[in-house]
Amino acid sequence: MRVLFHFGRYAIFLKRVFGKPQKHKIFLNQIIREMDALGLSSVGIVAIISFFMGAVITLQTAYNVEMPLIPRYTIGLAARDSILLEFSSTIVSLILAGKVGSHIASEIGTMRVTEQIDVLDIMGINSASFLVLPKVVALVVLNPFLVLMSMGIGIFGGWMAGSVTGEVPSAEFIYGIQYAFIPFYVTYSLIKAVVFAFLITTISGYWGYYTTGGSLEVGRSSTKAVVVSSVQILLFNLILTQLLLA
Amino acid sequence: MIEVVNINKSFDGNDVLKDISAIFKKGNTNLIIGQSGSGKTVFLKSLVGLHEVDSGEILYDGRNFNRMSRKEKKLIRQEIGMLFQGSALFDSLTVEENVRFPLDMFTEMSLRDRRDRANFCLKRVNLENVNHLYPSEISGGMQKRVAIARAIALNPKYLFCDEPNSGLDPRTSIVIDELIQEITKEYNITTIINTHDMNSVLGIGEHIIFIYQGEKYWEGSNKEILKSTNKELNDFIFASKFFKKIKEDGGFV
Ligand SMILES: Nc1ncnc2c1ncn2[C@@H]1O[C@H](COP(=O)(O)OP(=O)(O)O)[C@@H](O)[C@H]1O
Ligand SMILES: [Mg+2]
What we know:
The complex is a heterodimer of chains A (246) and B (253). Chain A has one domain (2-17, 26-245). Helices cover 84% and strands 0% of the residues of chain A. Chain A has helices at 2-17, 24-39, 43-64, 73-113, 116-122, 127-165, 170-178, 184-209, 215-245. Chain A has nine helices and no strands. Chain B contains nine helices and ten strands. Chain B has helices at residues 40-47, 70-77, 95-106, 111-124, 140-152, 170-186, 198-204, 231-237, 241-248, and strands spanning 2-11, 14-24, 29-33, 55-60, 63-64, 80-83, 158-162, 190-195, 207-212, 215-220. In chain B, strand 1 and strand 2 (14-24) form a beta hairpin. The longest helix of chain B is centred in the last third of the chain and has 17 residues, at 170-186. The mean pLDDT of chain B is 93. Classes of the chains: A mainly alpha (246), B alpha/beta (253). Magnesium ion binds next to helix 1 of chain B.
């Protein structure tokens, strides 16, 4: 029952979020500010996590492929495909669900409980759209770039780990990551990045927007936002994989 | 002038406003008084459409709010200024940007004109040299004044204030009350103020409506209120030992 209630209210909320902005110039400024607040501030953490993720994937693959018959370059190939297909898009989005999701829900939730949203409503501004749409646009545009960056850094991390430990010689790794490359894997991940960015921003915006009470409830909304958007990311990951790769 | 006719409002079967009717005149400070939880905030928010009433009419100078199209509502909203209990300034904007916000959103004025107007409003509430500070960097009384400046930026015809001096010390409260009264007279605004503060009631209560558990129990002015024999009203007024003592001593001279 609760699920149905939230689903219905979320649908109505989405309809309001995609209302026409009051002033286009202000809307553009907001998007730029949100790109900075949501996307650019996440570059560091995405880079660090991608580097280590790539390194670990490569080493684990290497330790699991110890048979002399299998050429070493296949490790580069396997690491590349794991990163491109799954790790970059899903892991980066899950990190963002935690970082950006809690940020959005607590910001909007605080605005709700301190009546700042009422101020917008009373002026006749579509508050849902005014507060959430710039965030949706900003993250939907930036997330694919974050994912691309993550792919690059992840593969670099793998190459570095392979070379430093001597498990995968540099030339073999580089040969491997070029071998049987399927460009659609990148497209597939970028599609996921867009969908996940949409889920994170709208779901977190929803939980923040419908906060009632005080600071305790703001914290609760923020937790809800992270949990629900993470679960939805995993669910949609499954759906998209089935739709795009099957 | 705002006219309210038989409005009712309930939340999930809990009747919060029961058949309230009243007339609020232009250029007057109209007060809604009552204990916490009596329905003052719901009343104010119903008038401005933040809550939808279950039944009854709300007329803004004869224009029926409930029957307006979305577009008409949007236009009338720009004639309304509202002051919220906790000031409700935008945390992420500076003082000047807060006051300029309605101008940025709803006018085609040049940046220079908008800034001038914002500065004029800030000056009107006796605030200067705080333009570039953020709400968290100024005192509660100053925040209230910024909120008033923002509420009058678009030259409203109607001003709503929800507990304008909650959380303020008595002296600052009086300053804010008097400021609201002055602005009401100066621009001939229809002003409605929620309060449970007896100092405000006696200070600026030109027209007072007492709400008890969602019903209108008494209506009058600050000249009459201490003489009232309404039991619930007396319980409200003389809950304070100070006012009780005054009554026992024979009232104000
Ligand atoms: N959004 C709401 N949903 C349900 N009940 C509400 C809501 N807002 C207010 N109430 C109830 O209405 C009553 C009056 O509240 P309120 O108008 O805030 O009182 P006051 O402002 O006079 O202190 C309270 O019992 C409160 O619980
Ligand atoms: Mg209240």
